[in-house]
Amino acid sequence: MVQQIQIAAATPGAAERVKLGPTDITISPLGIGTWSWGDTLFWQYGQSHTEADVQQAFQAAMRAGINFYDTAEIYGSHRSETLLGACVRASGQPVVVATKFMPFPWRLGKGNLLKALRLSLDRLGLASVDLYQVHQPLPPIQPEVWMAGMADAVEAGLVRAVGVSNYSAAWMRRSYAALAQRGLPLAANQVEYSLLQRAPEHNGVLQACRATGATLIAYSPLAMGILTGKYTPEHRPGGLRGMRYNAGYLARVQPLIALLRETGAKHGKNPAQIALNWVICKGAVPIPGAKNARQAEENAGALGWRLTDTEVAALDDMSERVTAKG
Ligand SMILES: NC(=O)c1ccc[n+]([C@@H]2O[C@H](COP(=O)([O-])OP(=O)(O)OC[C@H]3O[C@@H](n4cnc5c(N)ncnc54)[C@H](OP(=O)(O)O)[C@@H]3O)[C@@H](O)[C@H]2O)c1
User: Could you list the residue range(s) of the whole structural domain that residue 78 is in?
Assistant: First the structure.
């Protein structure tokens, strides 16, 4: 049972809103990602955080003015959608909900998308979803097929805006063209983007977003927690994250963490807030995961102010240095 929430007085970021792509949907310039809500394998749901924690994370984020929440059918074996839906319905507030369709190789036609969408809506307890995204560019189905399914879903009133995720610039353009034939815009491409993952700047995706008007939604904007500065070679994250971010990697990125701290000291902000503000300064919408109210509140502290161009350039430079190969 989720408690009814009261929205407190406006916080510095509360009034900030940006358009989701070329749609009439307005979102906070930072959303909340809910992969960890219900996920035991990667994020240790049940050990590091509980149902009460994620409910409080949602409530804290809402109080801070965050109205954009991202989930997916596969997160926590469907539990993330169920948990988020309960929070949204209990809030009684307008919330922009994004979820995703996974194009598993056995899902061979657009009818599968409609079927999966209806199951997501059942779990969310909502009549429609604001943003529906194709989660991955998986073979064998071509993007035009999924975009046809998406357009059907919009026409059926089940989806307000269409997005993709992990799509290349080329697949984005094909999706954009297929939707345009049905008179619809491509609202977003959700890709990994952070100070430790700058690929969208080099692989054409950021440019394709600018050209098509789609919002770049930045996932893992804290590099799965590394950019908070709390993990070091001596104190690594557990489980699968510890394999991706090993001791050598964590040692290499410490100069960047030091610069995040130094920059943060000037603004009264912590490393996570600086790392998230950097994403916002790049014109993208970060969706940091939050396991509890403290993390949601801290991440909301990236709103309502901006780094200077000089600070962004210094962070760009340091991020390039610590991630350079060789
Ligand atoms: N489309 C895709 O393929 C895709 C892929 C990945 C993610 N996503 C989306 O993007 C969202 C965010 O990405 P992510 O969860 O991978 O990584 P992230 O946002 O970079 O990191 C989230 C993790 O960092 C830690 N954390 C967050 N805020 C913190 C704070 N203020 N202080 C200390 N620790 C903090 C928490 O884990 P600990 O406390 O355990 O350290 C949290 O679970 C996901 O929830 C999901 O919605 C999408």
Answer: 18-229+271-305
